[in-house]
Model the fold of this input.
Amino acid sequence: MDSITHIVLGACVGEVLMDKKSGRKAMLWGALAQSIPDIDFISGAWLPITKALIAHRGLTHSFLFAFIIAFFLALIASKWHRAEEISTLKWFSFFLIEVLIHLLLDAMNNYGVGLFEPFSSIRVSLNVLYVADPFFTIVPFVVFFFLLLFKMDHSRRMKFAQVGMMVPVFYLAFALINKTIIENSIKNDLPNGSRHFTAPTLFNNFLWTAVIQDSTGFRVGYKSIISDRQFSYYHFDQHKSYLDSIHDHQEVMDLKTFSQGYYTLEKWGDTLVFNDLRFGQINGWEIPSSKFAFHYYLSHPHENNLIVQRGRFAGLNFSSGKQLLLKMFDMK
Done:
């Protein structure tokens, strides 16, 4: 999930789990603990771009890291707050829960997390929540600011924190139900032995996309959970042959690993482009043939700075945003 979600949810969980005598410090520690796995972003300062993509959400998003960082944070917090007489074990349990919540939420996205690193490079990506979903975040976000304003002895402080923690839980349950509905709706569209995935679209859990592999490429379609219509697909050729002369280049092998096989190749003029289909199209709900949000310039690798962010919101304007809302609630 996005950083804001981890911060505000971590603060709400901290308020609920820790003793009142820890005060607002529990909120701050919770926000820190839920943010700390994303420290791996600094790897981009020295790793090549394709290696940094693989490193992100790798070791620092593993169970091993969760236990190690919880242990060290517990030692620091118990010494720092010795006056509050909170045991090291309680601090350890608190930090472990916070970090594990971070890992769980990130596993719900399509980027994937290395839960079993360094023993296994398998990435877990359940494709249940979009990486930034205002519907998921808005309640803990509001509660976070109320908790900052409320005095520690406010009679409803704990209730507000519980709401900030539980509403995302109910929304996650809602998303899991949606996932099941969408998966059931495409059963008849799947060729025997074909690979596929389904995932929510930008900023919501109402409009979903399905990507289905066939003999020449992938079919990509969209459907609202409210609609009783079936998916309408647009086909993208994979063009594997474009990689014949460079298939053994390290950046190509890294990108194929990172995409988990869900990729296509295109030629934009003199530039060979690698598309990772897992991150969706820029505005495919409006223009079925639109470009994919994650694309990497194989012919001009020096232009790939911030490639994950580069296409995420490109082309998103009032018109496409309006179309997204209409599609979400099956109004057009």
